[in-house]
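Appendix B. One record, verbatim.
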Amino acid sequence: MTPQKVLEYARAHGAKYVDIRFTDLVGQWQHMTFPIEQLREESFEEGFGFDGSSIRGWAAIHESDMLLIPDARWYWMDPFYEEPTLCLIGDAVDPITRQGYEYDPRGVAKRAEAYMRFTGIADEAYFGPEVEFFIFDEVRYEVDGVRSGYEVRSEEWGARGYRMRGKEGYVPIPPVDQLQDIRTEIAERLRQIGIEVECHHHEVASGGQGEVDFRYGGVVETADHVMAFKYIVRQVAWRRGKVATFMPKPIFGDNGSGMHCHQSLWKGGRPLFAGEGYAGLSQEALWYIGGLLRHGPALAAFVAPTTNSYRRLVPGFEAPVNLAYSRRNRSAAVRIPMYSANPATKRLEFRPPDPSCNPYLAFAAMLMAGLDGIQQRIEPGEPLDRDIYDMSPEELRDVPKLPGSLEEALAALEQDYEFLLKGDVFTPALIERWVRYKREREVDAVRLRPHPMEFYLYLDV
């Protein structure tokens, strides 16, 4: 696509404004809106100035001036704004060096794809995330020095007699499934902006858990689509008087939301993961798995990056905490789907990620771990084709595990990040800033505050 094509599209659709979106370090979309007359062909090189010091995890006040360079590869009309508005995704650029900004997550993903091609291992990496979410009727919460609590409401917990029982939410038909039409609207909005939808359904948890699957793509492309997906889910829910959340574990005692990531490498139009080995995998695929498993604890800091993520990643429950691989077995951290014998569909699924992650950083980190596995020829060990949850503690003693908290994941990242630095994909400064931000703004924020459950347990001690 070219800037000229973007401008032609804007004129054809009567755009009055252009909305340029970008992602902060944590993983939230931000945006700036300009009259459409300010978007010219030169804008795709010159960019738009903005204050980077006001963006979470970005520039310090003394280096606040930034440029936002629109990317002409994907554009669409916002399906919700009252005035016709063209949407573009932008990359943050240092106005002095004209280099991509070090802390721009999208730049990290772009560098990961470039590094992969530089290695000669592959020329395409495809990611297909299954992004789960909840849509509630009402959410209330309160946090200050002397009070703390939350309340969640969902019509699926007994509206007009029909009740969605806990852990029985997988694909029931309406009226038990109360969100069919909402998910269909989400799917339609995705199609309107050019994202190909594959299916949608209710997920296992009660209280409005859903999944809308869209087609896989490249690292940057798919991360862009995840950001647009989360925006559309929230907007559709909000406009219907509901609230959507990608918080991994909003309900105690029911399933949490994951973001299982299907991954494959291709070179010269040939699928590199198809072969004659275990589960129809190639040696490269097994080494890639070896990289994911070896670096799994460090990856957790990016793919499960919230304190709430570890309410989901609990041994014995629905999420895989044991770093093992298996065909078909959904209790392994890496699953090899066996739906088809077609080599073009051969892929692996990494199951620990959840939708609270920044997709640019998460996808880039997973790709770098897999590439390191291939480069270092890391063997993944023997597959674990048993139900891990039925194994005894003695049998599981030698199976590596994911960290049990965000603090442990951050410590693991501090001990194992060299694989991320190859090709300057991540930088030591970015990793240090990520760890510091997460510790100070999230880990300490939760650790230092009394919890309502502590009053239940300890008020009478």
